[in-house]
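User: Here's a chain of 176 residues. Predict its fold as tokens.
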Amino acid sequence: MFDFDGVLVDSMHIRDLGYREIFKDFSLNLVNQLIKYHRINGGLSRYVKIRYFYEKLLGREISENKVDQLAEQFSAIMRSKLKDRSIIINEALSFVKRCYEKIPLHIVSGSEQDELRCVCEFIEIESYFLTIEGSPISKNSAGRAGISPTDLNGTYSSLSASTSTLSPSGQMGSYH
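Assistant: Prediction complete.
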């Protein structure tokens, strides 16, 4: 299983920009606190982060409609800013290209599912993965979507593109 942001694409700065944009009318200090929370909790969905901003940082309740509205604004920003092949982490893409015919590969991400699939298609990586699952499916509930670490035959459960790769024989090894 692969995460998307920070594993396959270098997109944290774009996510930061999205949060800064949807919360531009609020205190910069509070937005910076959200960015810190976002970076520590990269795998959490935007829905969780939007609620965190309102409920924890602002101390206010937020309706589901408002969460959905802000999430849609965020998604629109992401759909335009993430359509950029230069954000692909080349080492990860090389790994994927070497492995996809040998072992089943999946993306499980906190990113919104339709947006995630759209971006994967645009940057032309969707064909390497059996499934691409995003929010509202959480990483912890990916098993309910039919994805489990055993689908990977115990080979790995995530990728650190700078440290892992398959050897020519198809075994896990260190990337030097």
